[in-house]
Amino acid sequence: MQTGSSIRDALSASTEALEAAGCDTPRLDAELLLARAAGVDRASLHANSNGELTPPQAREFSELVRRRVRREPVAQILGTAHFRELELLVDHRVLVPRPETELLVELAHDGQRVLDVGTGSGAIALAIAQERSGVRVTGIDSSPDAIDVARANAERLGLDVELMIADLIVGGPYDLIVSNPPYVRESDWAGLAPEITLYEPQDAVLGGPDGLDIVRRLVPEATATLVRGGLLGVEIGQGQSRAVETLFEKAGLRSIETKRDLAGIPRVVTGRR
Question: What's the domain count of the chain?
Fold first, then answer.
């Protein structure tokens, strides 16, 4: 990209490069990266599309685009991701929060004691703490690196969430336990997007041969830690709903439901003790 190019030309050229690289949303990605390089928001880019980039801005934008061409996630390039009303710090140590995971936050409509298992960046735990007054939220993760990221987010957002390194359930009892566990089948790894296989932590993605290794351990432990009437919600992958519903049934949970995401995919299984 030439220094001194117009915003319009820079967006056009970078969109073509990102599209050729196989990025799903090349224009949006280009706008987000250019807004960062120019130090403005996307609305300002559109309002000033004939404006000129300074040489330093053009050089920075070129570097950001090069990283995205290598399929590094935009959120990791920018260092932040939006999740519900929060702006979270993210990097290679944690998964980038996905919109479908918001279904777990929406379960926090009653109860005062909440546990988020596999908290990662802290997205679910922090969103619940931010949206529900008076709740006591604990987020746990087996990865010390993930807990470091979650703690940085909690401090930055000024939210009071207990965060600790732990494998599955700790403490209790809880009114609500939510989890976005690793649930991708090992055989599916090679077919995932490069944004995942090259830049996100494999341990936070893969869940064994059928994707349910962690879920099998989680469901009975969580059930034993819930108060009577307490709710368990677990995010799942496509084609796993019936198997997970069976695990819920065997653990003695009742009122079992499967909620679909915006794409119509069965995404979260819930059940009450």
Answer: 2
